């Protein structure tokens, strides 16, 4: 029922673990190789993968869509080699494709990192594969969808398929985790990869149909990997001009925090919450800002709002400490 579609290059470190995690739920494995020189293809062959070769042209969407064209099953699952799916998620995935309530489903991509300055960083004590990471960031990402010729990825980098799916119907939201270990290749490799993405973005910006999204991603790249906060602010504002997005306001606020522009950060977080009051990271960021501004009661209110939206051990500790200081 499911075709696993992947694009790979020199992924001998990750590929076997990835394929082992999904071999029992997929009917075929499609591997599109863009120039591996290690044991990647040898590993893929162990899993009876159908292997195709594609010349790399700095366009992830083109490679993704090439892999989709090779799929023969009614449903498609997309993974990267440095990702792992929990075995416990197999049963709900089977239920999704049997019920066919939606044309596609989004999963929670949990990207492990040791960079505590990363936007939306959540500290942890243990990651899924016990690799010793300090924390993670989460984003929703569509990875399971019907095999439909009209469903196509767009964007040379940070490619996405949601728009073409939404033209035909809504997307189901799930809490199925995809564990993402891209930083295991080392911080230097990861940084170079992200800067390569930035270059592709800027060279192909005109080709992005959703420029608000592209500008937001550019802002994140300049914030995280170049620490060029002025440039990041510029891109976040460009994104906001096209679409009022709470994530862009969050990035904007973080930039202002780095520049010690506290009143500007406060305004950015406020506007972000006007767009989406259910964004826990915005509430947490606003709370941390109020601590810097020596407004503990306002900070406490923000952190309590975080907890209303879900469990967060780090914020629970902050609430407890603030209550002790305030005597409440």
Model description:
The protein is α/β, with parallel strands linked by helices. It folds into two domains: about 1-185, Spore Coat Polysaccharide Biosynthesis Protein SpsA, Chain A (Alpha-Beta Complex); about 210-315, Serine Threonine Protein Phosphatase 5, Tetratricopeptide repeat. The protein contains 13 helices and nine strands. Strands 1, 2, 3, 4, 5, 6, 7, 8 and 9 form a nine-stranded mixed β-sheet that branches. The N and C termini lie far apart (about 55 Å).
Keywords summarizing the entry:
alpha/beta, 47% helix, single chain, 2 domains, Serine Threonine Protein Phosphatase 5, Tetratricopeptide repeat, 328 residues, 9-stranded mixed β-sheet, Spore Coat Polysaccharide Biosynthesis Protein SpsA, Chain A, 13 helices
